[in-house]
Amino acid sequence: MKKLLCSIALFLTGFGMLHAQDLEKSLLWEISGNGLTESSYLYGTIHMTCDASLGTDVQKALDDTKLLVLEIDMDDPSMQSTMMKGIYMKDGKTIKDLVSEEEYVALSKFVKEQIGMPLEALANVKPFFITAMFYPKLLGCPVQSYEEALMKVAHEQKEEVLGLETIEEQLDVFDQIPYKDQATDLLRSAKDNLAYDKESFQKLNKLYGNEDIEGMITMMEEDKNLTSTKHKDKMLDNRNKKWIDKIGEHAEKQPTFFGVGAAHLAGKNGVIKLLRKAGYTVKSVE
Q: How far apart, in whole angstroms, are the C-alpha atoms of residue 270 and residue 272?
């Protein structure tokens, strides 16, 4: 179960993509204007990587700010216990309610082979989070996290770490997305033994390495996963819109470094364009 929680925590920090146009290839953006006396910074992370080393430009932005704000407060000591309460389906639903008997047998074999756990032990876990357990295997290397790297710097600088939303709010997204659609995505992963997922993950990481936030969005629009296409409003848009006022509030109080999944940066309803719409100047840091 600890492995499950670690996978979920990493995956939650960067899920979902959406379409955009005309934004530079950059992961680091400066936020100014609209009454701000000092600049804040917005940085796009990726939830799992082989190398989470921070560039000199990112380090300088961290040095120039006084607060780190991630999607969720990963310093919260209650995060793990809260997560445990939110990963389970409501109303007594189980995986068996979402798939046929034949599909259940295939899933049981797949889960056992991939993570060494019987599916019965995960019977009432939301299907999305069962899928998330496989993702560290897609890298082919020990998993590193940009969020952890950012937090390390914040701790060294004795700065506070906060979140734009609560872990409860993130987990609630997967009650809004039908469990049946989540199960469909899980079955797709099982049917080709993660072949599609591995190919997609490698492509996504390459785009991220090139800081191509628009390419990432386009790729995910064409993805086979229902959670990131059919339900992109729940995965991204609605959350982005809620974050804008909170970003402004933090930035007004002190220069702040915001670290969110790179998926949230671009798009009509991406954080960059929403901040500009709210009156802020947001420009790439090259």
A: 6
CB < 8 Å & 24+ apart, contacts of 199-206: 201/135, 201/138, 201/139, 202/138, 204/46, 205/46, 205/49, 205/139
**Block residue for tokens 């909170």:** 246
217-221: which pairs have CB atoms within 8 A and are 24 or more residues apart?
217/17, 217/18, 217/19, 217/20, 217/263, 217/266, 217/267, 217/270, 218/19, 219/17, 220/16, 220/17, 220/18, 220/263, 221/17, 221/18, 221/19
- pLDDT tens digits for range 200-236: 999 999 999 999 999 887 887 788 888 888 998 999 9
CA 181 to chain centre: 19
What CA–CA distance (Å, rounded) separates 74 from 237?
Answer: 22
- Beta strands at 161-163 and 256-261: parallel, antiparallel or unpaired: unpaired
Coil, strand or helix at 26: coil
- Domain containing 268 equals 2-284
- Please count the other Cβ atoms lying within 10 Å of the Cβ belonging to residue 22: 7
Question: Structurally, how many domains does the chain consist of?
Answer: 1
Question: Model pTM?
Answer: 0.90
Between CA 83 and CA 91 the distance in angstroms is: 18
pLDDT attached to residue 73: 95
268/276 Cα distance (integer angstroms):
11
DSSP string, 196-249: HHHHHHHHHHHHHHTT-HHHHHHHHHT-S-HHHHTTHIIIIIHHHHHHHHHHHH
Backbone φ and ψ for 140, nearest 5 degrees, come out as 75, 25
Q: Which of 188, 260, 274, 233 lies closest to 28 in space, CA to CA?
A: 260
The model's pLDDT over 20-46, given as tens digits with 9 standing for 90+, comes to 347 999 999 999 999 999 999 999 999
